Structures are given as structure tokens and as C-alpha cells.
């Protein structure tokens, strides 16, 4: 057996290296075991080639495929990212493939429970899918033994996997034909060689060309043309790799073929979708031609314009939760509509309501209705949601919110303004939170009331209870420490959530997540945790993330507060003890003294708390902040770190070579080497750190109530023992210090900051330059940074193991 007696992760690595080395097999898609992508992207990104199930035993092929199908169906991965050309399954002996298109109908089964555990082979759902796929697999699967069929397997991968993107297509239905149109406008319309203004005079619109594209059969381009019931309702048809105006439908004759300037771009776009649309939706799409109207959307002042990809995805999530016919069964009210772009793609105008603060925005929406937008004029109105009484609403909407049963069928669908009040006018919008809603619910909102979206949430929950709330906002309602009071009151069930980068929204520069959350306010539930889907800036599904609700006693600053010290006999000061999440890490510093700062909030450092301070500092700094973890909270850990001396000493090492100590602000107690180690020309003013490392400085024991016992610190007068990674950092640092001490006109007591300043100098603005002209120094500092990064990578898993962060 080629891969016998190895673990699953190793099996996946070996299969990737042995059979798919020309591809990228590193990307993780949700809970799917193994994926294959081309190494190079096309103009639309990378199209997946294979999703596969991996097993370390010797499994029958149908069982492996059923588990994969249940995994995909449970997460609806095919809706979140483009499906692959093939599905696969492999164990230590064999590998099998099946075209995705041959099994994709399974994912559209009605009345099927996709929430079963995929690995439970005894469920009725597992048995039902297995029964369906077994016959299919006999006809459509390709099975290879790694050893017996080596040549055939290589041939299949080279001639099918690598060239098979044609088969991975998204079906077109009534819920996605409008979002696909919006993408078509961006990519296909610009390459159609036609005068749009001339056509518009004859009432031929770009949407007519889109419909012509939809009703092409990918297998036989003449098939739809011969279907009179479709052709009679098309103003434009696709013919001979171009477009023809359908003479039967208009009096004016256009005889010439309208060409496509870039046929490769056109073909690449339509590779993603299976044409024509699903049969049962074809007449609906033809009848709702009026919905395909380009929208000239302005940004609403004070609010965040919702990008098209998130509008499309949010409606897909609503469809997943509420069912295929959700737009017929539910009412929708966007009470922060701006000019209405969040409503693009919705089809049932009789169930849609839109209100906005500014009358100018109402006029824009009314103007769009006159040009074909899918809204009713009397359903679009001016309303100040945070100040106005509901009696000002249109009677039809009042009837819905005043009827308990109808209210349960109301979706409040919003991207509310994120404006936040600030004490500084240039950083916030002073007074923006002074509303009737804030006055009424101020005691519940607390400091969360500074943010307008929190006021929207509290009024909706308190006065429209029972509705489905579908909203875009930051994760503060889930994680923010300032939102604790609001969270206690806001007890709704979080049904679904996805995360997107905030900087994809207009006018947002910050690196943090925006969440689309669907709340069921009819179900009372205190939010504790959730697993959220994650999408990158291009709306590609990239995995999941746990999000947790915490209380103030769980935060990391509770941990460090135990180790507060007095100013006497201090060796430095750590600032930044006033925020618990990644976004506040940039204010965490180890300095000489608190007097260096205008508003210090930190802790003095001495021999008694050096290790806990180093742990706190390293935990906050070892993992790089990014848009996804920006709001993650650092926590008061479990007690297991206390017995891990290697972890403690790794953190000390990391802090020694990452601090901002400067000799101009006082004695440098942080030199990690003796004079002899770096060939210093004079004696150092302080040998505190090397004495501490050698065990010559004994911290005082505290009482057990303060959790500072001899097991947590170096109380036995023995030298500290360091890991190999930490030793490498010391080695790299030693070479840097030695090189510095060979220079002329140096500071004998220099700290790391002083050494960098010596070689890099300052610019005209007084800031340290980013680079040095000294090649030897550049090499040495680069080596130190590399070794420090490796040490950080070693520390990171322990941060999660000891629950300083939650996965």
C-alpha cells in the first residue's frame, strides 16, 4: 500500500506532492479535506479544479463521496465559492474522481436535512445520498490504484483535472439572475461593440443583450433559437458568436451582426455559469425583464455604501435561511436605505419598503423608479428612524408592524450608518448620537450609544420584536467590551453570519471585519459564540472563524492587573493597559518610564513581575494583526502557563529584543549580554538583565491569593533555560551588539533602539529612517528579525493553548 500507516494530514500532503505538484493544494475551503487550484489565476481569479475527501483507512468509494457531498451541502460551499470541475475521494490505496456536474442536482433536493453530521454513516440522510450516488458513480467515476494505475492516474490529472474548468458552472435561477447581470455589466457589456445610445432610442437596452446571453445553450447554441416560446420574448438573440436584433419584435430593422471585441473575456465569464437558466425559472426571468435596470447609486452621507458583492451574498444568505421563495413569503423594510442599493436584486416590489433620513435620497429613488427600478413609489418615503414615531409610517407598513403574526414575516434589512460620536470633532461626529432613541434607551446602551448602528439595533429589537433583522455592522455587538450592557438586553438568536473586509466598503480605510448578521428576534437567546463564514475582498469563501462573547473579568488586562508594582526599584514601564483587542496593540510598549507619555495607562516593571509583563507583551505582539482578528479580544488565561518555563522564557526573550527602551530616558536595565560577550570597551551601567537570566536576582514571593507563586517565576536562583529558537535570537542579537561595539562614538549602554538609530539615522521630520546604508548592519538586523519571527511562531500556538486567545 503506497501510503499505509500515515496520518490524514501527511496523506494529504503526500497526495498533493506526488500527483498534483503542478497545482496549488494548500488552500483550505471550509471543512473540505483537500482542494486543488491552478497556480495561476485568470482574469476573474482562480477556478477550483477539485474538492476531495481524504481517509487514512481503506474505504469504499461511495461512502467517501457521500461524506464529501454532505460536507459541501451542509455548508452550501457551492454558493459561497465557484464549484470545482471534479469531486474526489482518496485513501491510502486509491483515488477516485467524479464530474461535479454529474452530482450537483443532489444539492438542490427539496425537504432534505443538510444539518446532519457528515461522518455519521447511520443517518437516513447518509443512506439516502449513498443510494443516489452509487449508480451515478458506476457510470461517471474514475478510480485509480496509486501503484497499479500510476500512468493512467497521471494521464487523467494532466488531461482532465488541468483542463476541466468548463464543467464547473453555477446554475442560474430566479435568486441569482440579477446579481449575475450586475457582474455582466462590469465585464461583458464593455466588450460589446455597439452604440448604446442609438439602441436606447429604439428601446433596446443592455439587459436585452444579457437575456440573449442567458438563453444560449452551452451545448447547442441553436437550440434556444428554435424555441419559439423563448425567442418571441427576446429583443436580442445570440447568433454566430455575436448578437442580432430580433426583427420579429421591433419595427426598426438592424441587419448587421453586433460583434464582441474580446471573445476570450466573454468566454471566461460564461464559463462560470450553466446556460440556459434552470427550466422552471425561464419564464419568470423573461417576465421580469423590468428588474434588469442599471442603477445610478449615490453614497448616502453618513452611511456606508454597500458594495455589490456583499449585497448579492447577503441575499443569498437570506435565501439559504428562509427558503427559495423568501421574497414572496416575507416583507422587507430597509429603514436606512440611502438611495436603495441594498435592495438591488430583490424581485417582489410589492413586499419591499424603503425609508431614508434625507428627502433628497427619496427623490433619487423615485427618479430611479421612473426609469424602471423595482420599487413602488408609495413604498419609498422619508423617515428618521432614530427620532420619528412609527405613526408616520405608510399605513401598509404600519399594518405589518402592528400585527404580531405579520411582524414575524418582516425582515429589517439594513446597512445602518456607522457614525460614532467622539470627544474630538476631527475624529468623530460630535453630537451624532443625540437622538430620541438614545434618550429613551441610554441606560441600556451605555457607551455603545455613541454609535448609531447600536441605536438602530436597540430600537428594532425593543419596538419591532419578532422581526428578522438582517444587518451589516462591526462585530462590537458580539465582542465589544463597551457593548456588554446592550448585549444583556439584546437577546435574539443569531441564525447566520459572514465576515467581509471593512475596506471593501466605500470610505473605510481600517483593517477590520464587517459582519452580515441575520438575527431572529422572535427567539430569545443570549449570544455566547458562533462560527462565521469568511470571505476575502473578492467575495471568495476562505474559511470560518469562531467569535465569542466575553465579560470584563475574562479580558487579559484582568490578568496583568494582579502583577502591579510600585515605582521603586523599577526597570521600566509597560504602557497600553487600556484595551484588550488587536486594534489596541499598537499602543503597547515597553519603555523606560511613564513620564515619556502624555496619558500613560500601564504598569511599572521590576524584578518581581518581569516574567508576567513579558508574557503579556509577547502575547499581544507575537501574532500579527490583520483585518480578520482586529476585534479579537485577548483574555485572562487558564493557569497552565504557570508550569511552562520554556514558554515564560520564550516570552522574556521576545520582549528583550522587541522593546522601546532608550538610554536618553534613563538607565538601560535591558542589555541582554555581558560586556565580555559583545567586547564592550567599558563596563555597563546596569547588568540587571544578565544577572536575572543567571538567577542572581531572586524575585520576592507573593501570597497565593495574588496568583504569583514560586512556580511562576525564577525563585530558585538557577539560570534560566532557553529553547533552541530563543537561543537563536540571542545568537543573532549578540552578533548585532558586537558589531555595534566595534563602531566609533557609540553609547556603551545602548539599547536596541539606540543601536538601530545609530545605523539608520533620522530623516528631516525627526523620525528614524527605515533603512541603513551599512550592508553589514542590514544583514545582522535582518537575521535578528527573522529569528525573532521564528520565535513568535513558536509562541503563537501556546497563546491559544493557554487561552490568551480563543480559536
UniProtKB/TrEMBL annotation:
It comes from the Bacteria. This is Site-specific DNA-methyltransferase (adenine-specific). It comes from Mariniradius sediminis.
Amino acid at each position: 500500500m503506497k501510503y499505509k500507516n500515515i496520518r490524514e494530514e501527511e496523506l494529504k500532503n503526500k497526495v498533493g506532492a506526488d500527483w498534483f505538484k503542478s497545482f496549488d493544494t494548500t488552500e483550505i475551503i471550509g471543512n473540505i479535506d483537500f482542494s486543488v487550484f491552478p497556480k495561476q489565476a485568470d482574469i476573474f481569479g482562480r477556478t477550483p479544479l477539485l474538492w476531495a475527501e481524504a481517509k487514512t483507512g481503506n474505504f469504499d468509494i461511495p461512502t467517501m463521496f457521500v461524506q464529501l457531498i454532505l460536507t459541501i451541502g451542509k455548508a452550501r460551499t457551492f454558493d459561497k465559492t465557484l464549484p470545482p470541475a471534479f469531486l474526489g475521494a482518496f485513501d491510502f490505496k486509491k483515488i477516485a474522481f467524479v464530474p461535479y456536474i454529474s452530482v450537483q442536482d443532489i444539492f438542490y433536493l427539496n425537504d432534505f436535512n443538510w444539518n446532519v453530521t457528515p461522518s455519521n454513516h447511520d443517518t437516513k440522510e447518509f443512506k439516502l445520498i449513498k443510494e443516489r450516488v452509487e449508480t451515478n458513480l458506476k457510470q461517471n467515476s474514475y478510480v485509480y490504484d496509486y501503484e497499479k494505475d500510476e500512468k493512467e492516474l497521471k494521464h487523467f490529472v494532466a488531461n482532465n483535472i488541468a483542463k476541466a474548468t468548463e464543467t464547473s458552472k453555477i446554475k442560474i435561477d430566479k435568486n441569482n439572475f440579477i446579481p449575475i447581470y450586475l457582474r455582466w455589466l462590469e465585464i461583458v457589456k464593455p466588450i460589446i461593440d455597439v452604440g448604446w445610445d442609438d439602441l436606447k432610442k429604439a428601446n433596446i437596452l443592455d439587459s436585452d443583450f444579457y437575456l440573449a446571453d442567458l438563453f444560449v445553450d452551452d451545448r447547442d447554441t441553436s437550440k434556444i433559437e428554435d424555441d419559439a416560446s423563448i425567442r418571441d420574448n427576446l429583443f436580442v438573440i445570440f447568433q454566430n458568436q455575436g448578437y442580432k436584433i430580433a426583427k420579429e419584435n421591433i419595427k426598426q430593422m438592424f441587419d448587421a451582426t453586433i460583434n464582441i471585441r474580446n471573445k476570450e473575456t466573454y468566454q471566461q465569464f460564461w464559463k462560470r455559469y450553466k446556460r440556459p437558466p434552470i427550466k422552471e425559472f425561464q419564464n419568470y426571468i423573461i417576465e421580469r425583464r423590468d428588474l434588469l435596470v442599471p442603477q445610478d447609486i449615490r453614497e448616502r452621507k453618513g452611511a456606508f455604501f454597500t458594495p455589490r458583492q456583499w449585497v448579492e451574498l447577503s441575499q443569498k444568505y437570506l435565501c439559504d435561511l428562509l427558503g427559495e421563495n423568501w421574497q414572496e413569503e416575507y416583507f422587507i423594510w430597509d429603514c436606512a436605505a440611502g438611495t436603495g442599493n441594498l435592495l438591488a436584486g430583490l424581485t417582489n416590489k410589492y413586499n419591499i419598503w424603503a425609508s431614508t433620513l434625507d428627502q433628497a435620497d427619496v427623490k433619487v429613488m423615485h427618479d430611479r423608479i421612473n426609469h424602471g427600478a423595482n420599487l413602488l413609489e408609495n413604498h419609498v418615503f422619508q423617515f428618521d428612524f432614530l427620532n420619528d414615531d412609527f405613526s408616520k409610517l405608510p399605513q401598509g407598513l404600519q399594518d405589518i408592524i402592528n400585527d404580531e403574526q405579520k411582524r414575524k414575516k418582516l425582515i429589517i434589512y439594513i446597512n445602518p450608518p456607522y457614525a460614532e460620536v467622539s470627544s474630538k470633532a476631527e475624529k468623530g461626529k460630535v453630537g451624532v448620537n443625540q437622538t430620541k432613541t438614545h434618550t429613551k434607551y441610554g441606560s441600556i446602551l451605555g457607551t455603545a450609544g455613541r454609535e448609531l448602528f447600536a441605536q438602530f439595533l436597540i430600537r428594532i429589537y425593543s419596538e419591532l420584536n419578532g422581526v428578522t433583522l438582517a444587518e451589516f455592522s462591526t462585530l462590537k455587538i458580539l465582542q465589544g467590551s463597551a457593548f456588554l450592557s446592550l448585549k444583556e438586553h439584546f437577546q435574539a438568536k443569531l441564525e447566520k453570519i459572514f465576515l467581509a473586509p471593512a475596506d471593501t466598503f466605500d470610505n473605510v480605510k481600517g483593517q477590520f471585519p464587517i459582519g452580515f448578521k441575520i438575527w431572529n428576534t422572535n427567539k430569545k437567546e443570549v449570544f455566547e459564540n458562533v462560527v462565521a463564514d469568511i470571505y476575502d475582498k473578492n467575495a471568495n469563501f476562505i474559511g470560518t472563524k469562531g467569535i465569542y462573547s466575553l465579560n470584563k473579568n475574562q479580558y487579559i488586562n484582568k490578568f496583568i492587573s494582579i502583577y502591579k508594582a510600585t515605582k521603586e526599584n523599577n526597570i521600566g514601564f509597560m504602557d497600553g493597559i487600556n484595551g484588550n483587542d488587536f486594534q489596541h496593540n499598537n499602543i503597547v510598549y515597553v519603555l523606560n518610564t511613564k513620564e515619556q507619555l502624555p496619558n500613560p495607562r500601564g504598569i511599572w516593571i521590576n524584578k518581581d513581575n518581569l516574567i508576567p509583563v513579558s508574557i503579556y507583551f509577547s502575547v499581544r505582539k507575537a501574532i500579527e494583526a490583520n483585518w480578520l482578528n482586529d476585534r479579537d479580544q485577548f483574555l485572562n488565561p487558564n493557569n497552565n502557563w504557570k508550569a511552562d518555563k520554556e514558554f515564560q522564557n520564550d516570552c522574556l526573550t521576545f520582549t528583550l529584543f522587541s522593546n522601546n527602551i532608550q538610554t536618553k530616558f534613563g538607565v538601560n536595565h535591558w542589555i541582554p549580554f555581558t560586556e565580555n560577550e559583545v567586547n564592550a570597551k567599558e563596563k555597563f551601567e546596569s547588568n540587571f538583565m544578565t544577572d536575572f537570566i543567571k538567577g542572581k536576582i531572586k524575585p520576592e514571593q507573593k501570597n497565593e491569593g495574588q496568583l504569583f507563586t514560586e512556580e511562576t517565576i525564577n525563585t530558585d536562583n538557577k539560570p534560566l533555560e532557553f529553547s533552541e529558537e530563543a537561543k537563536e535570537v540571542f545568537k543573532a542579537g549578540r552578533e548585532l551588539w558586537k558589531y555595534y561595539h566595534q563602531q566609533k562614538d557609540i553609547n556603551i549602554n545602548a539599547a536596541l533602539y539606540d543601536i538601530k538609530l545609530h545605523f539608520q539615522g533620522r530623516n528631516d521630520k525627526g523620525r528614524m529612517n527605515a533603512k541603513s546604508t551599512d550592508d553589514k548592519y542590514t544583514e545582522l538586523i535582518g537575521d535578528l528579525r527573522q529569528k525573532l519571527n521564528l520565535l513568535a511562531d513558536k509562541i503563537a500556538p501556546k497563546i491559544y493553548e493557554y487561552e490568551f486567545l480563543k480559536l
